Amino acid sequence: MKVDREMEILLNEIPLLHHVGLLGGSEAGADDDADLSFLIHELAAMGLVDGDDELPAPGAATGYGFPTKGENLVAMHSFSMASHYAHMRSLFVPVTFDDAAAADGWDIRCSPPPYVPLPSPATPRARCKSVRRKNGSVMTTSPKKCGAAAAAKWHGESLAGLRGVMYHMARDQHGCRLLQQRLDDGKREVDYIFAGVSRHAAQLMVDPFGNYLMQKLLAVCDDGQRMTLVLTLTADPFALVRISLNVHGTRAVQKLIERLSAREEIGLVMDALRPGFLELIKDTNGNHVVQKCLHSFASNDNKAIFAAAALHCVDIGMQIHGCCVLQRCIARSRGEHRDKLVAAIAHNGFKLAEDAYGNYVVQVVLDLKIPTANSSLAQQFGGKYIHLSMQKFSSNVVEKCLKVFKEVDKAKIILELLATPHLEQLLPHCYANYVVYSALKNSKGSLHSALINAILPHEELLRTSPYCKRIYSKFFLKN
């Protein structure tokens, strides 16, 4: 009860007043004429003690343990922190008033508070600006609950009055679902929803629920509304990049890219994505946005992507997501854009061939069978085929070279294999054995016979080594 709480606080304050000398103690330099009648009146007003209309005469016994005028309270009741903790309990420990009175000599009489009937609970209503009390403070209802309440109230009714809370509805699971359903009701409802959420497009695109509404809104809005969304999203140079990097936002941006048709819209989106191209292309979510641009836009619209890919081909080609985007760039580029990109990759072919991801990019370039590119790669690989054949990733590139190179360049690879003084080390090697097998398959004539003759002395090794089973079964069991 409130009265009990206030009484306990006053009881705990009495020893502290002793301690600081406020009750007339000479050690604290207090005034000898200090009058404590005000404290008695406060206790009487609270119903803790019996108050009198008139103050007690000087020197008369008060009955409350208070010193009379001129008496030294410190001399009467010496105070120490130890005695204070011994007699005065913590405010947080329940105290019975009988025990307190017995311990301190207080005559406590506290009448119960008057009974006040509680108001009957009102019927709960969903209101956006409703308030509630919690720990003595006023709190407003959360916006998401406002959105859910609005969704429940306005199901099946006009959306004209929901513009103020439509953003909050879109971030609520049920509210977002309702708005998506209302988008199918015609142009009027689309206009209402667009007016309510278009200003918050960037926030809704990264929202777990709001992104679904934005995707559907992009599919049904007209050209003017779509242009408004594009201008909103590209006003901040990095806003569209941040949205594309988000796990929810990437889907909404991909849907936006699918719906773009005007050259002006495409130009605005490409200009907004360009500053974060390198980050987007390496990101789990962002790389899908770049690939959607490559798939949806014409080659000339993607020229900025092709130029950046050629400039950073080594950096992105040696990354798990980047190598996929780089392969898509090769497939979608045309004319001079593809020539520059292929030339840049071929120029760095040896470094990429040894990489876990870059080797796939080199193989794609080899499959194009562009004479200038393959010639550049053959020149870089020459004299290093043994080294490349004994590595996990580059051995795949050597196998591809044996398939797509011209006969002259194939002969150089096979001659390098024959010239090695330790062919018996390549045959049982876990990676090089595939290169030898591919050389046997893609050679013919005298070169093929020379390779067979070099392998024959090692027939016993081929029979026992687990890595030579393919070579032995294909070229020796038949004979």
TrEMBL record:
<dbReference type="InterPro" id="IPR016024">
    <property type="entry name" value="ARM-type_fold"/>
</dbReference>
<dbReference type="InterPro" id="IPR033712">
    <property type="entry name" value="Pumilio_RNA-bd"/>
</dbReference>
<dbReference type="GO" id="GO:0005737">
    <property type="term" value="C:cytoplasm"/>
</dbReference>
<protein>
    <submittedName>
        <fullName>Putative pumilio homolog 7 chloroplastic</fullName>
    </submittedName>
</protein>
<dbReference type="Pfam" id="PF22493">
    <property type="entry name" value="PUF_NOP9"/>
</dbReference>
<feature type="repeat" description="Pumilio">
    <location>
        <begin position="196"/>
        <end position="232"/>
    </location>
</feature>
<dbReference type="GO" id="GO:0010608">
    <property type="term" value="P:post-transcriptional regulation of gene expression"/>
</dbReference>
<dbReference type="GO" id="GO:0003729">
    <property type="term" value="F:mRNA binding"/>
</dbReference>
<feature type="repeat" description="Pumilio">
    <location>
        <begin position="272"/>
        <end position="307"/>
    </location>
</feature>
<keyword id="KW-0677">Repeat</keyword>
<dbReference type="InterPro" id="IPR001313">
    <property type="entry name" value="Pumilio_RNA-bd_rpt"/>
</dbReference>
<keyword id="KW-0810">Translation regulation</keyword>
<feature type="repeat" description="Pumilio">
    <location>
        <begin position="344"/>
        <end position="379"/>
    </location>
</feature>
<dbReference type="GO" id="GO:0006417">
    <property type="term" value="P:regulation of translation"/>
</dbReference>
<feature type="repeat" description="Pumilio">
    <location>
        <begin position="380"/>
        <end position="416"/>
    </location>
</feature>
<comment type="function">
    <text>Sequence-specific RNA-binding protein that regulates translation and mRNA stability by binding the 3'-UTR of target mRNAs.</text>
</comment>
<dbReference type="InterPro" id="IPR011989">
    <property type="entry name" value="ARM-like"/>
</dbReference>
<feature type="domain" description="PUM-HD">
    <location>
        <begin position="135"/>
        <end position="479"/>
    </location>
</feature>
<dbReference type="InterPro" id="IPR033133">
    <property type="entry name" value="PUM-HD"/>
</dbReference>
